[in-house]
Input
Amino acid sequence: MQREEKQQDAVLEAVISRVNDLKTSIGAMIFKVENEYETLNWPNFLDNFALISGQLTSLTKILSNEKAPALRNFTVLPLMLKPDLDENLARVTEGRLTTFSHDIVPDYLRTKPEPDAELKMMQLEHKANCVTYETAQKQVAAMNKVVGHVWDLVNKAREEWESEAGSRSGAAQTFSLTDTPLLVAAISMGKGLKHTVAPGAMMGGPPPGPQRGPGALGPPQGPPGGIPGQMGPMGKAPSAIKTNIKAAGQMHPYR
Amino acid sequence: MGVTILLSYPVPENKTGPQTVDLLIKRIGALGAVQSGQFLVDCETFSSGPTMGGPPRTVHVLHNSEQPAAVFALLESPGPPPKTVPLVADGLFDLLMLKMSSIYASKKQTRMEARGTRFEIADFLVKIGTVTMSSNFKGVLVEVEYRPCFIAGNCWELMREFMQSFLGSVVQNTPPPYFQVHNRLNDVYQPLDTIQQYLDHFASYRKVAGL
Amino acid sequence: MAMAQQTVNTAIDSLTAALKSNIIPNQEYFLQGSILDSSVEVLLHRLRGLCDNVDTNLETFHDHEMCFSIRGPNNTQPLQLRVRRSLDHNGMPMQLRYIGQPEIGDKSRPTVLRNSIDIGTSNTVVEFLTELGCRKDFEYSAKGYMFRKGRMKITVFKVFKIDETRKMMSSGGFDALSPLTHSYLVELSVLAPSGQDAIADDMRCFAEQLRPLVQLEKIDYKRLVHGP
Output
């Protein structure tokens, strides 16, 4: 018995956390729709949907897990109703529900439709049963015609929209055509990552010795140590880097 | 994995290898040991060709049936300073050595193997096996593991007493040289230590063979 | 007594058997692309929607990769070996990886294919390779996100140079990383035993779903060498 209770607690906890995730996602989406409707684009909106749908799937997975107790077999019994303000309840529901009173409870703990709605449903079902077969067929055909028409309209709009989207491709570039080969070359053969330069040519940091500093790399300089002398090699160093990298590149085995 | 000690058991003059193994099995059986499967430790040695420049480097690749998913590689580098670099890797490392066969060639004739039977007796695991080099008999090795302890210094006396009970005077009164040379008496014992001991023994068998 | 008769196979025998029955994942199918820093959030969002690991938080990684090579006799192609270690999880096994030459193949082949051997190793691997005669060609650090979709792995990461001048410091230079570009590299890959080409088509389909955000393509490595 205790084990079952523990399991139930665990499942409920998991369900609550998933529902909270879902709530945050939906909240974020509503926020986007309300506040960013001017900049929000369709793919972005669909991505939001995909996220929510993924979360729904994972929620269903938990609920349909065989370890999960069948929640519908549990009864919720309101023990006490009162019209006063219940701070605890308000906190738990994040302010959506402040009292646990007679006019609210039937709505929140409802498992069947409202009596009015139930009556209306019955009337409609009765009406549907009275229609003859031919009339029903006719109505279905008419409905299909209307739906088909709308379908055509949507398709046409889509074609137009797609051709329009195709014509203005590249308007919002999300990737750089030059960066891909650059990055791939870097991680596959070290392009731009190899340290072929002597430490003296590094920017910053003091030169290793007072005389044979960075100047050793470049062409002969004036008297070393002076400020102009230091400026010189700084300017020269990049060219040394370039040629060195090129040489290394040519040595490389890929052909 | 507890502290493990590996000993070479000299084959008496008037006996063959299998006879010696049978004798040891009989003795450990008399102590109440129960047989529990087989074991195998093998060692293949690769060395670098002349293209690498400098003195040749040697890689010993060992497998131990006690750690079936692992490959142990010990690289002997001429240095300077000369040193041995160990590497523990998963099973695909063997594939990599195959890929490097043009750089590191296997010396097939020096492939060594210790193969035999495993016994359990209380907290001890005893393995008695014969050593072969490219299927020529080389000697008899006895491996004794005391499973509850990880520090060799703490259980050497106990292990010595147990080993002497069935191996006799072959067991010295001081810990084996491996533990003293590498100063491993007070460190946590690792599977690699067993491998090192096997390699040391294999190397001395090879030396006897003049290879 | 049946136990006594049963002999132990050598590791090499088992490996040969595994190779014969083709169960060792020694091939990598992959596609590559990149995305600008400014758009990476959109991509991550979409990947979260598409991939399996939506339940958990974004899976991040920060790795240090070193690329070694060792030359064979007679100027044959050097062997490339890579070592990867995690910078956010100390003490985890390191990864040693052999990667062969990428094969582009003809147009009908949906992805690039290369041989690959992935080996988990102890942390002595760098010293081991160095003493083995390998030379460290270059290194970098990769920081980003990882997603899974079935057998597919999708990584979105930035490539950083490692600052040589700060290498001697306790942080190893990993605290002041300079990115190589303003883009994240996006890789879609599957490790599989050879001959499982069907997975490559699945990858192509998946890549389609990331368009036009990212263009995952077969990058021609031969062209990279002679490119700008």
User: Anything to note?
Assistant: The CA atoms of residues 44 and 156 of chain C lie 8 Å apart. The two ends of chain C are 70 Å apart (CA to CA). The longest helix of chain C spans residues 198-210. Chain C is about 25% helix and 35% strand.
